[in-house]
Amino acid sequence: MFAGLAQRFTHLRQLLITLLVFSVMPAPSSAAGESEQAAPLIFGIVPQQAASKLARVWIPLLNELSETSGVPLEFATAPDIPSFEERLARGVYDIAYMNPYHFTLFHEEPGYEALAHARDHLIQGILVIRRDSAITSLAELANQTVAFPAPRAFAATLINRSYLDKEAPGYTANFVSSHDSVYRSVAAGRFVAGGGIHRTLKAMDPEVREELRILWQSPGYTPHAIATHPRVDDPIRQRLAAALESIEMTERGLNLLQNLRMNGFERATNADWDDVRGLNISAQ
Q1: Using CA atoms, how far apart are residues 129 and 131, in angstroms rounded to an integer?
Q2: CA-CA distance, 137 to 139, in Å (whole number)?
Q3: Per-residue pLDDT tens over the stretch 110-163
Q4: Model pTM score
Q5: Nearest Cα to 110, choosing from 232, 266, 284, 257?
Q6: CB-based contacts of 100: which residues, under 8 Å, 6+ apart?
């Protein structure tokens, strides 16, 4: 009799243990969700500068955003601006930092949605010349060769060229792939002038920057967009937007922003770039 009771007790204990194990195991759907979230979003940065320089200032910021938002982010760029445009058109990047003109194009197709832009900042095109140049006006660039980063760089090319077309007829545009290349080429005397923006000029190596001066600057426009591909769902977008807004709240965040010559980020809507759409500009 006692042997039978012992056997039934053993079976009961095994059943209780089995029930306990299943009660604490995570549901299969939850595990799958965690696996999907672990895949990083590809964050594409417009290649205004050398890839090594972009990586040095952007990767620490993306790491901070990943930690704050819980959304893994992976840095990416492209060899040049035309390649970046081609990747935007194909939707290679889940999220991207792109110039204002790019945003107006790639919002239409494949449908990138505005998330944020730099706070308290308007983007201006600038034309730089050598510090020892005798040129004092745009009109003196007529029939000269002027360096630009790429045909569809917004402020550095499109805005600057829209004014040169009126003020310096007969000038020739030469595209040298990046803002850094513009500044180096003008400093070296290969071109009399070149197009850029304040932020990239400030980030230029001092020995190059000190050889240059700003000849002219344009009015200001809504700055570069941070935008997400339609496949990024709204809960993820909201977490990223909150992380971008809050990055300036810590000393570490402020240091990371300073490396990018930015004060912070604010949430954006697609309509924020209506000033750019109103220019009705097109790549030349």
Answers
A1: 6
A2: 5
A3: 999 999 999 999 999 999 999 999 999 999 999 999 999 999 999 999 999 999
A4: 0.80
A5: 232
A6: 123, 154, 155, 221, 222, 223, 224, 225, 273, 276
Which residues does residue 225 pair with via DSSP β-bridges, in sequence order? 98, 117
3-state helix, strand, coil in the chain (%, to 5): 50, 20, 30
Domain spanning 39-122+222-277, CATH class: alpha beta
Do 55 and 78 meet the contact criterion of CB atoms below 8 Å apart? Answer: no
The domain locations on the chain are 39-122+222-277, 125-217
Provide the total of helices (H) and of strands (E) in the chain, helices listed first: 12, 11
Cα–Cα distance measured from residue 105 to residue 108, given in angstroms and rounded to the nearest whole number: 6
Structure tokens at 87: 């990747």
